């Protein structure tokens, strides 16, 4: 897993899972604490995430809200969009462009 960017926009790539969760949490929390306005997470290079990785995203979302910021997900890969829909988190998280639920392929 890697994260590059600044306090306004971060690109997350690789696997966001139990092994990378602690490092990702540290980077995301620092970005939330050090910036202002929306924090955009570009997920176009993310290969996969597990429940722990999704928990890191939700934790960053909550922390951003407490800091008066908004976490915005950009370019969410289709398989991760399906997970957000299945868990109904697409209703809570800000997703740039939204998710076209009807256009997602069935699994």
Let me know the CATH homologous superfamily.
Answer: STAS domain
Identify the CATH architecture.
Answer: 2-Layer Sandwich
- Relative strand content: 25-35%
Sheet with most strands: strand arrangement? 1-2-3-4-5
Which structural class matches the secondary elements?
alpha/beta
Number of strands: 5
Written as H for each helix and E for each strand, in order along the chain, the element string is EEHEHEHE
Number of helices: 3
Q: Roughly how many Å apart are the termini?
A: 25 Å
How many structural domains are formed by the residues? 1
CATH class: Alpha Beta
Instruction: Give average pLDDT, whole number.
Output: 91
Approximate shape: globular
And the CATH topology?
Transcription Regulator spoIIAA
What would you report as the Rg, rounded to the nearest angstrom?
13 Å
Can you describe what's shown?
This protein is of the alpha/beta class. It has a single domain, classed as STAS domain (Transcription Regulator spoIIAA, 2-Layer Sandwich). It is 36% helix and 27% strand. It has helices spanning 21-34, 51-66, 78-86, and strands at residues 2-5, 9-16, 39-49, 71-74, 94-95. The relative contact order is 0.17. The mean pLDDT is 91. Residues 1-107 form the STAS domain.
List keywords for this structure.
single chain; 107 residues; alpha/beta; Transcription Regulator spoIIAA; five-stranded mixed beta sheet; 5 strands; STAS_dom_sf
Summarize the structure.
This protein is an alpha/beta fold.
What is this structure's SSE topology?
Layout: E1 2-5, E2 9-16, H1 21-34, E3 39-49, H2 51-66, E4 71-74, H3 78-86, E5 94-95
Parallel strand pairs: 2-3, 3-4, 4-5
Antiparallel strand pairs: 1-2
Helix pairs in contact: 1-2
Protein name: Anti-sigma factor antagonist
Family: Belongs to the anti-sigma-factor antagonist family.
InterPro entries: Anti-sigma_ant (IPR003658), MlaB-like_STAS (IPR058548), STAS_dom (IPR002645), STAS_dom_sf (IPR036513)
């Amino acid at each position: 897993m890697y994260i590059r960017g600044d306090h306004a926009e971060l690109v997350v790539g690789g696997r966001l899972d139990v092994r990378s969760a602690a490092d990702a949490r540290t980077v995301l929390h620092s970005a939330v604490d050090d910036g202002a306005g929306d924090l955009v997470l570009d997920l176009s290079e993310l290969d996969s995430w597990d429940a722990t990785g999704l928990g890191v995203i939700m934790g960053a979302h909550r922390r951003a809200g407490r800091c008066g910021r908004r976490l915005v997900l950009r370019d969410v890969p289709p398989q991760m969009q399906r997970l957000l829909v299945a868990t109904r988190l697409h209703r809570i998280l800000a997703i740039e462009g939204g998710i076209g639920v009807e256009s997602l392929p069935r699994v």
